[in-house]
Design goal:
Layout (H helix, E strand, L loop, with lengths): L3 H13 L8 H11 L6 H12 L8 H22 L3 E2 L2 E2 L1 H4 L2 H18 L5 H28 L7 H26 L4 H28 L2 H4 L5 H4 L5 H9 L2 H11 L6 H15 L1 H19 L7 H15 L4
Antiparallel strand pairs: 1-2
Helix pairs in contact: 1-3, 2-6, 3-4, 3-8, 4-6, 4-7, 4-8, 7-8, 8-9, 9-15, 12-13, 12-15, 13-14, 15-16
Length: 324
Amino acid sequence: MLSIEKYRKVFVDYLNDFAIPKEPNTLYEPIAYILKLGGKHLRPVLTLMTTAIFDEDLKKSLDAALAIEVFHNFSLIHDDIMDDAPLRRGQQTVHEKWNLNTGILSGDAMLILAYQLFENYKGDTFKALAELFSKTAIEVCEGQQYDIDFETRSDVVILEYLKMVEYKTAVLVGAAMKMGAIVANAPLEDQNNIYEFGKNLGIAFQLQDDYLDAFGDPESFGKQVGGDIIENKKTYLFLKALELSDAPKKTELLELYGNSSLNSDNKVNMVKQIFVESGASFATKAIIENYTQKAFNILDSISISSEKKEKLKQFGTALMNRNV
């Protein structure tokens, strides 16, 4: 197995050679823009890594990895529109740099480009990849709708939130890994287990992302810190703070989320203080560790060497200790 950075380099080199159509420029330039913004390339790296884990030439999964990355960035363009987000990876979002219509249409084109990449696979491999991708894509849309619905609901519970995280974020991580196993012709049981490993790691990853949204360094995080608070999103931090707070603090938190006239910086600072004082910030770190360990436990059921299992554990540990 290669190092994470080497997998990333292999993928980025392939991404840079990806032939994006040129005309009309106003449709394709935004696609090239967001794909070149950088980022962690977590999902395609996992696809390549999984193929390598099952002793296959990782180059066979480059098109599947690229499809995952194109789809992920399509979802980011549309997420940013819905969230009215000004920044993505520290740069202007597509709809800010161009306009809403361009963001919508360029995102739509990216979804189609992602599907086209699977056409490079044949027979049972194509069928398995296409079926998994279609299932995952609709779950991501369902997760995004749950997320939107939660903004205007006052009765969201933690189990609902975790389901939203699973659909919106984690299933794509699981699918990225399973696609690598599919291309490698791994046994079906191993394909399913590596999916569960990725899904649980994906839940931990999103919970960590939510934590960093409130408590991350704005210079390294690359997004607007406190954005979830400003948007009144019912994150795990918020729901756990409601659960753990006494009645006065619970009322204060709900009033802060219902106050549209309060200065954004003041609102963020006051809510973060409640997150800390209630113990919600500590509880969030604990559940991140819980899902990470759950992912690691699944590795025992996968028929790969101990050395490869340890590499996956190291990757997961590094992912959960990140600050970006």
